[in-house]
Amino acid sequence: MNASVLIQLGSGDLSVGFPKVSVQIWSADRSLPEQFTGSLPAAPHLTEFYQNWQAIYRHLCDRKPLRTLEDDELEIEQDGITNVSHVSFDTLCHQLSHALNEWLRSRGFLEVEQKLRSRLQPDDQIRVIIGSSDRTLKRLPWHCWSFFQDYPNAEMALSQAEYQRNHPAQRNTDRQQTRILAILGNARGIDLTAEAAFLKSLPKTEVSFLIHPTRETLNAALWDSRGWDLLFFAGHSDSATETGRIYINENATHN
Predict the structure, then answer these.
(1) Are 126 and 3 a contacting pair, CB within 8 Å?
(2) Are 74 and 86 in contact (CB under 8 A)?
(3) Which pLDDT does position 82 carry in this prediction?
(4) pTM tops 0.85
(5) Which neighbouring-strand residues pair with 66?
């Protein structure tokens, strides 16, 4: 069975909790969804776990000076981090994942998960959509939820709490291949050979590669009249506050 599970967390945040969680199961053989409700308690410790994880991760990615201690822990030699100075990154990843699953096993949400499991089969093709306007919540490692371990064909996506239906451009339903626009951007220090080879091996696909494109080349490709089914990017990226960046080429500007 193909199914979509929409989990709307409603108003709230991790500091106060989510008192009304709405869950819908949509399936192709039914015109209306099944719906039930639950709740999630406050979990400010998840915010702290995430912030600690993010700080360590960014330092590892930025190749900040790190010193390995005798017990395989990492010490960050920078004054900017004061709440976490000695920590095993692997342990911190496990703690964040464990804390997320403990939160999702809370009484108000456990019944929701049990209902999902009673109505879905492990071999079902499932799309799980988490709807929330809380930015920190959407950055948590939802893919570590134990539900996904038992349902290997389930994939997750994130959504805003409120949204409107747009009128999509007319898609050519007659074409037999999936069109993929693949951008191989700034790859200094990393090898993108495996990504390119994987895309080329996909069956029933038409892949167009843009290697270190200029802004103008990318813009022209995006507006191709035939349209695209998937946009793929590999290369360096980063974020500043709420702004994400991908680096499409290795130039100092216009990248």
Answers:
(1) yes
(2) yes
(3) 41
(4) no
(5) 76
